[in-house]
Amino acid sequence: MAAVFEEVELEWEGNTYKVTPTYRMIQRIEQDVSIAGISQRLAEGNPPMSHIASVVGVLLRSAGVQVDDGDIYAKMLTELDAEQITQLAEVVVSAFVPRSKNSDSPGKNSEPGKAAEN
User: Fold this and answer.
1) What angle, rounded to 10 degrees, do the helices at 69-78 and 49-62 form?
2) Distance between CA 88 and CA 36 in Å, rounded?
3) CA torsion 44→50→55→57, rounded to 10°?
4) Which of 5, 45, 78, 101 stands 20 to 30 A from 107 (CA)?
5) pTM of the model
6) Helix (H, G, I), strand (E, B), or coil: what is residue 93?
7) Higher pLDDT, 37 or 98
8) Do the bridges between strand 15-19 and strand 8-12 make them parallel or antiparallel, or are there none, so unpaired?
9) Calculated CA dihedral for residues 112, 45, 7, 14, nearest 10 degrees
């Protein structure tokens, strides 16, 4: 099966991890939180910190990092600045946008609510 999602980079504790999201990863995440719900709350200026921490945990563990979601959440609240949290949130949301196969498909470069230009 061809990869649907593009590799993302996630910085954590001074290291950069590269992860290619999968459908199985989405299923695992959405048993607990909604990726679309995270995106909506971010757009409203109300970031769901515990949900972001949960998704970051799935991404990091898939890269081989032994990390607990509670530790991620605590670090977000006590050690990370607003810019670092925003970067994590952007990775969380963008990681699960499928790559565009053609100009009529949504993708990372498309704008919601706008038709593709031909």
Assistant:
1) 120
2) 15
3) 150
4) 45
5) 0.79
6) helix
7) 37
8) antiparallel
9) 160
Q: Measuring CA to CA, which residue among 105, 113, 110, 115 is closest to residue 4?
A: 105
Query: What is the tens place of the pLDDT at every residue in 16-35?
Result: 999 999 999 999 999 999 99
User: What value does the mean pLDDT take over residues 46-60?
Assistant: 94
Q: How many CB atoms lie within 10 A of CB 77?
A: 12
pLDDT tens digit sequence for 64-117: 999 999 999 999 999 999 888 888 998 998 898 887 665 444 444 444 444 444
Is residue 18 within a helix (H) or strand (E), and if so which, with residue range? strand 15-19
Residue 116 DSSP symbol: P
Residue 28, C-beta contacts closer than 8 angstroms, at least 6 positions apart = 58
> Which pLDDT value is given to residue 118?
40
CA–CA separation, 90 vs 92, rounded Å?
5
